[in-house]
Specification:
alpha+beta; three-stranded antiparallel β-sheet; two-stranded antiparallel ribbon; about 35% helix
Length: about 180
């Protein structure tokens, strides 16, 4: 993102709009997004015990549904009709995508996956994708190791749309992996 775009986010989150994304901006951003989340948050904590208790075992495809894509979305240039996700997140995911599409259609239309029975990158524990409780959008501009907001371009308004549904935005929480949103606290 440009310095001007970073300053705009800083103004929204109530920190000094200087274009530098440091510890104060990070903390203010995380606090701002958490304040948008429903209380109590409907999703589990991100530890494996809480995830298994709430979602069931990773890879359990009996918990998945085919959510009709609520907005035009494309995977590798081909329009998708459904998103395979956990039954407990389907309605919330549809609302988040609809709200995010209203503010950033060019980003939301680039779908990069939801259910994928695999471990977390660089680890052995199951990814939230293995439970169908995470989605990736516009990975080409918001990759796993690309810092947000310095390099990744995930719009803050998309993060806000997901936060209003209680979803965690990896870009704001981890300062990288801006494509990733997950239904956890």
């Amino acid at each position: 993102m440009t310095s001007t775009e970073i300053k705009a986010i800083q103004s929204k989150i109530g920190t000094v709009p200087d274009g530098f994304w440091g510890p104060k901006s990070i903390a203010a951003c995380q606090k701002y997004l958490r304040a948008l989340m429903p209380s109590p948050n409907p999703w589990p904590k991100p530890d494996q015990a809480s995830l298994t208790k709430f979602y069931g075992a990773a890879g359990d495809e009996s918990q998945l549904v085919n959510l009709p894509a609520p907005v035009p979305m494309y995977y590798e240039g081909k329009r998708i009709k459904t998103i395979r996700c956990h039954r407990l997140v389907a309605a919330s995911l549809a609302r988040a995508l609809t709200a995010a599409y209203a503010v950033a259609p060019d980003v939301v239309k680039v779908y990069d996956g939801c259910f994928n029975n695999r471990p977390m990158r660089g680890g052995s524990l199951p990814s939230l994708h293995a439970r169908g409780a995470a989605i990736d959008l516009d990975a080409g501009n918001n990759g796993n190791l690309v810092s947000w907001p310095a390099k990744a371009t995930m719009p803050f308004d998309v993060m806000k749309a997901f936060a209003r549904e209680g979803w965690l935005s990896a870009g704001a929480a981890w300062l990288r992996d801006g494509m990733h949103f997950q239904a956890t606290q």
